[in-house]
Amino acid sequence: MITVSVPGKVHLMGEHAVVYGKPAILAAINRRLTVTVTDRDSNTSGYVANILGIVQKHFGTTRGVHITIDSDIPAGYHLGSSAAVAVGVVSAVSYFLKKIWNPTLINQLAYEAEKLQHGNPSGADNTTVTFGGLIWYRKELEFLKSIWQLPFQLPARLNNFSIIDTGRPKENTGKMVAFVKSQKNLQKFLDANEIQTKRVAVAIKEGDEKTLIDAVRKGERTLEDIGVVSKKVIPVIRKIERAGGAAKILGGGGRTNGVGYLLCYSHHPPASCIPIRLGEEGVRLENKI
Asked: Is 106 found in the same domain as 30?
């Protein structure tokens, strides 16, 4: 029996823009899922079966396994559930079949699975949950990605993040990505969002709370301008801002109802907020019985 655990993730800034070669900064969070593999008949279907097939093809085997997933990362809420499943299944099955623990290979195979699931993912989600910490990610070309695990942690004085459940979006990530692609002001959005992504990174490194709050607010405005933040959720964001904090969507967002979780930075968050820690460990081998 092999068990691995994988964190969820949040986009601090750069979602949507990252699809077009702009930078994103992401963080692994303290919500995890576990994948357990045992030597029994295969029980897989759907996405998990596709992931298993990619691993089997890579290693040239047809051996079946039994896969169990237990998750604290809700699907459809932009916390990286799909990427965590891909990384968890790839890593657990790879170790079970071949005793191989290679995060770079895990990430590559998980990205192939994510492409089957989402069509044109950036690869940032699977990269973050594989390596953990704070990740600076830029997709230069399909075969060339700049990935930096930032050499610093979130300063303790900036440990004021939480998430707010606004309801699962009606639109999936693929639909939201297609919507953004169709917008005439796309390039303006990309350039403006990149500026705030860089400001977030510098603010975290320097422990500059004022700049962090301002950058998150302005970055959120770029996402509102491109149309991926529903009118139902904007008043929640404005309320947090009036209280001295900042909030933004995570991942694809939503246009008509909820946007999944909001990322909130505040010393006085609403009672509905769920505290989270940023910069957690990536995929981890829990046991190998």
From this structure: yes
